[in-house]
Predict the structure of SRPBCC family protein.
Amino acid sequence: MKIYSLRRSQELPISLEEAWLFFSSPGNLKKITPKKMGFDILSEGSDEPMYPGMIIRYLVRPMLNLPVHWVTEITHVNEPYYFVDEQRFGPYAFWHHQHKFKATEKGVLMEDIVNYALPLGVLGRFAHWAFVEKQLDDIFDHRHTTLASYFESSHTLKNTIS
């Protein structure tokens, strides 16, 4: 099984505590996922703060608007520094996503480290080359742009009000 890695980092002009409040609420994931993915959270309590053992059920439409059920478990939480979600059922043979947060002089450095594998051997490797890698890049590019816009404007608003 071929395991792929995706790493992204972004500095946001917010405090570590603000970052944690936003990213540790599973309900906010829909806000930063491209609309074309048809992403919906099916689990009740998605506005609760996450905890180890939390199961989150999603419906996503990654291709041809075909629905795919995805179930993840929050396996590790070290507030406010990191949490890990792992796929239990879904489109990947393996999915391990680390979300890390570190205070900086300018705010917080957020880092995503995703290790994943696709099912179906050679067909999975072809699918990765043909569209999966690009789709994941597009999702994380969208996330980067959306977060920059969201937190830059909220940061500017706070500074204006102060």
User: Anything to note?
Assistant: The beta strands are 3-12, 40-41, 55-63, 66-78, 82-89, 94-104, 107-117. The mean pLDDT is 91. The radius of gyration is 16 Å. The longest strand covers residues 66-78.
